[in-house]
Amino acid sequence: MEKPTRKPSCPNFSSGPCAKRPGWTVDALKDALVGRSHRSKEGKARLQECSDRMKKLLELPEGYRIGIVAGSDTGAVELAMWTMLGPRPVDIFGWESFGKGWMTDAIKYLKLPQVNEYKADYGKLPDLSKADRTHDIIFTMNGTTSGVKVPNLDWIAADREGLAICDATSGVFAMPMDFTKLDVVTFSWQKVLGGEAAHGVIILSPRAVARMEENESKVPWPLPKTFRLHAEGKLKPGELEYNTVNTPSMLCVEDAIDALKWAESVGGLPGLYKRSNANLAEFEKWVAASNWIDFLAESKEIRSNTSVCFKIKSDWFLKLPDEDKTAAAKKITGLLDKEGVAHDINSYGKAPVGIRVWCGATVESSDIAALTQWLDWAHATVAEGFNK
Fold first, then answer.
1. Reported pTM
2. In terms of CATH architecture, what is 268-387?
């Protein structure tokens, strides 16, 4: 097969940290409040601006709080678990590595007495109807390592008694989310916004704030300082939005503000959805015409429009021993990395062997279209070697 000539303008298709917004340069950080305290008047104003822009862009319901925490999305989820769980049984839904990791936290480390585990293999969803309205619920909006998303939130009761905790890091800003069905939502800037890593964001409903305040003196486990968001038993105004527990990087905050301004400029949430969906559509056209690649997600309804995971279905590939399948997939992705076409598109280590490509809003559709031609070339080149 002839090697394509047109390369993607940006070869960054990593699923985190993800591609920066189109046109980004370090000049976007020229006004960053470096060398200054985040507790200064100016520092607090910058943090408040970041929180306000996130809240407005996401169209959060009245009374919901949003702010910056330590430890990326992982830290934000664990903060919620350590400060809010305990009073009720917990239903945890996991169908990829991170969702299943929250099960480990609940059972092995928090040692909660009643945890209901609802699992599914990569490419599938567990039975979400098992969610009990009287229980707390933990789930992932979009499985970054499996390419499987929750199609909607109809399965969460509007009159629930427990809290709904949602790890939304590769879903928020890319797919519609009914926040009235959610009490805790976590994410990091490094995914759909293309921001920098290390910082997490947590959204709390009034019910979640109340649980956090009521639960502090009741939990039987120690709470690290970075998890203790409120002082004197109350989450006061500003304590989440700009008075952060730990010291944030003002460079990262400036970068997040730049990403949020860009998101506003492309039409806000509808514009971001449109960009991600257009990218997925390019992949769908390609897969429909291909005889060697398919989506890992078993149905279109649950197919992610951000972290797209593929399985290789070529006859020559399926006949290989498992270790040779891994080597073959790495040769395909390695060729594209060497050509400067696509970096970091290996499937996640614990996921089925294949290819994973980020196609969130910061990626251009023209680059997805160009990439698919190169993927065909790389597959044909590797196949020729294995067939000799």
1. 0.97
2. Alpha-Beta Complex (3.90)
